[in-house]
Design goal:
Elements lengths: L2 H62 L2 H6 L7 H12 L7 E6 L11 H12 L6 E7 L2 E11 L5 H4 L7 H7 L12 E10 L1 H52 L15 H23 L3
Antiparallel strand pairs: 1-4, 2-3, 3-4
Length: about 290
């Protein structure tokens, strides 16, 4: 087997092993990084929904509701949770994989009632008031899902509709009744903002990044092997071939071949110099034996 072929096999084995190790480590890193990226995006979306809640409470609601109007007419656009949910609905047109819920233990609208896993998150916030957010993974019928949650605390404006039925708008009572959504206390954790996204999204991001990385590393490996092959040919194989050709001529009795050029001070140059000295010594010895 040629020296160049042996070198390429050795390079491929070493580089292939390094590429496999790098791929394994990079795959885990890219997966974690993709999850962090998705969670940061979810956090930004949640902040957007929170800003919509605050804007509705502080600026929209005072403009649309007078005391007389409030007691008779319920305008759902003035409800912070409705504003946040609608804002996110428009946002989903750009990010369809993300979903948003304002899950509540005792909501006025039954559609906002927390399911079991959402209730567990809310109870964590209720039992640990220092917790400002929770994120994790959960199993769903459609596969693993990544979620981020933040607590919903009752503020003074909330008590207008959620303290006792007598304070709530009559139209709201007519629409939802008096059985749910009352008895809230200021500062109480009643629900959680929850943004969910299928794990398939960060996995797809990580997979695309992994494929791109592997392609780049493979291309770098091929270019590196080509450059090393050229260097090996110029620095090692070509001088060794010249040395082999001269040795072949001498072995056939041709003592008139020119000496090999010696350039540099590396091992190949040292080998060429040693060969030249051996060739001169051999030629002189043969000349003596022939009586010249």
């Amino acid at each position: 087997m040629k020296l160049l072929a042996k070198f390429n096999i050795a390079f491929l084995l070493v580089f292939g092993g390094g590429l496999a190790a790098a791929g394994f480590l990079a795959g885990r890193f890219l997966k974690d990084n993709a999850q962090d990226q998705v969670l940061r995006q979810a956090s930004l979306m949640m902040e957007t929904s929170l800003a919509a809640r605050t804007y509705t409470t502080e600026q929209i609601k005072p403009l649309l509701e007078t005391p007389q109007h409030f007691t008779t007419t319920f305008i759902r656009q003035t409800v912070p949770a409705y504003a946040a949910t609608e804002t996110f609905r428009y946002l989903r047109k750009r990010y369809p994989a993300y979903t948003y819920r304002e899950a509540t233990l005792n909501p006025t609208n039954p559609s906002n009632r927390a399911v079991d896993w959402e209730a567990d998150i809310i109870n964590i916030f209720r039992n640990h008031r220092d917790r400002t957010d929770i994120h994790g993974e959960r199993d769903t019928p459609d596969g693993m899902s990544l979620y981020m949650a933040r607590p919903i605390l009752v503020g003074a404006p909330c008590l207008v509709c959620h303290s006792v039925p007598s304070r709530a708008p009559r139209s709201m009572i007519k629409l939802y009744g008096t059985a749910n959504g009352f008895g809230w206390q200021e500062g109480e954790v009643v629900g959680a903002q929850i943004v969910s996204v299928p794990m398939s999204l960060p996995m797809a991001i990580a997979q695309r990044a992994f494929q791109t990385l592997m392609i780049y590393l493979g291309a770098v490996g091929i270019v590196t092997m080509i450059i090393l092959d050229l260097a090996l040919v110029l620095i090692v194989i070509r001088p060794v071939r010249r040395l082999s050709a001269v040795a072949e001529d001498i072995s056939k009795g041709n003592l008139d071949v020119p000496e090999l050029p010696v350039k540099g001070r590396d091992e190949i140059a040292g080998l060429a110099g040693s060969f030249n000295r051996m060739y001169v010594s051999l030629r002189k010895a043969i000349q003596l034996l022939e009586g010249r």
